[in-house]
Amino acid sequence: MQCCLNEEGEFAVSMFNVELKKVVDSSYDIELGYELYDKLVEDIKNGLVGKIGKFAVVTDDIVEPLYARPIAEKMTEAGYFVKTFVFPNGEKSKVRATKEYIEDAMLESGFRRDCCIIAVGGGVVTDLAGFTAGTFGRGVPFINYATTLLAAADASVGGKTAVDTPLATNLIGLFNQPKKVYIDINAWKTLPERQLRSGMAETIKHACMADREFFVFLNENMEKIYSFDKAACEHVAECNCRIKYSVVMKDELESGLREILNLGHTVGRAIETVSDYKLLHGEAVAIGLAAQAHLSRKLGYMSDDDVSAVESLLAKAQLSAKIPEYIDREELVKKLYTDKKVRNGKLRFVIQKGIGSVVCFGENVYATPVDEQTAREIISEM
Ligand SMILES: NC(=O)c1ccc[n+]([C@@H]2O[C@H](COP(=O)([O-])OP(=O)(O)OC[C@H]3O[C@@H](n4cnc5c(N)ncnc54)[C@H](O)[C@@H]3O)[C@@H](O)[C@H]2O)c1
């Protein structure tokens, strides 16, 4: 850039345009199957992440011996440099301090820009590892190996990565797409029942917002799914995947349509934080789904029967639709304002329409303002 005097004796400042138009292809595959460790190694050998030879396996302390270790061992056997970075399991680890810990540990172990992160675990691991990958060395590739139903249903697909803050969940993060997602249906068998139910809440969300037939299927097959019937579980995995990726493909950065994936999350995320994470993500979402159904009925988009159908499916999945007694209702109302859909200080909700659809409020608008008193009334019904 040049600075010089012009004819009037004033400084004329030159201007340059740094042209950086980008055409980016962030497409990737999602593979559903059983014990996909060998497939992962084979894909890497076949160039999934180019010529990278260094891999940081990021996982939590429960998943490490179950799934991360076999993956790390197979990768090492295949001749790659592999180190595993483990943090304590649970939502309370999904914070900046854990990200810093992983980053420093990776740096100390000699990892630089020429590495790839493999996230092995549930949504906490994939959110945290994906965010870490987005900033480590200004960005390195990452792969998700999802081991929970919740991560399979939702968290591992779509490229939203984040950490929680004391104010609310997922406030700091990046859109960062993985190179591939592996969904290991076999891993659901070692999940504690409570975690399986938590994943079922996001599954029911998908059915409520996009697929009436899937809703009926869940109603008729809940026992089979909970007893790991192969065909039923595969159907769940496939429907979840199809519903999630078809939304993400149309609106990767949540400029409109993607907001529908937030069904039940306005109240859900707020309860999750106010409960100080005593409620699991899916447990909080289940209550949020019931709350938005009540709101939808109030606004005239769902009948009494529709609302009962949602509540009875949640009950079938052994998910409570009631806000626990220990949650301070007024604190919950205040917490609703930390939701990312809030615009100009107004609460906004995604609203279910009947079973298997959501309300579109205008071109590419899928959330509607709801006044605080209405939100308070709904919460007091729950
Ligand atoms: N990025 C997104 O689009 C998105 C979408 C939905 C949810 N999320 C996030 O996902 C997180 C919740 O995901 P989650 O429920 O998978 O959480 P999680 O990763 O904490 O896993 C739940 C628990 O199950 C354990 N576990 C994982 N796999 C196991 C297995 N196969 N067998 C036994 N135990 C196992 C974990 O150690 C943990 O204790 C939340 O942080 C939420 O915000 C993100």
What hetero molecules are bound to the protein chains? nicotinamide-adenine-dinucleotide
Structural class: alpha/beta
What is the H level of CATH, i.e. the homologous superfamily of the largest domain? Dehydroquinate synthase-like - alpha domain
Secondary-structure element pattern, one letter each: EEEHEHEHEHEHEEEHHHHHHHEEH
The coarse overall form would be globular
Distance between the termini: 62 Å
Overall radius of gyration: 22 Å
Number of helices: 13
**What is the chains' assembly state?**
single chain
| Top CATH class of the largest domain | Mainly Alpha
CATH architecture heading of the largest domain: Up-down Bundle
* Major beta-sheet overview: 6 strands, parallel
Fraction of residues in β-strands:
5-15%
Task: Considering the chains and any ligands shown, give keywords for the structure.
single chain, 382 residues, alpha/beta, Rossmann fold, Dehydroquinate synthase-like, alpha domain, 2 domains, six-stranded parallel beta sheet, two-stranded antiparallel ribbon, globular, binds nicotinamide-adenine-dinucleotide
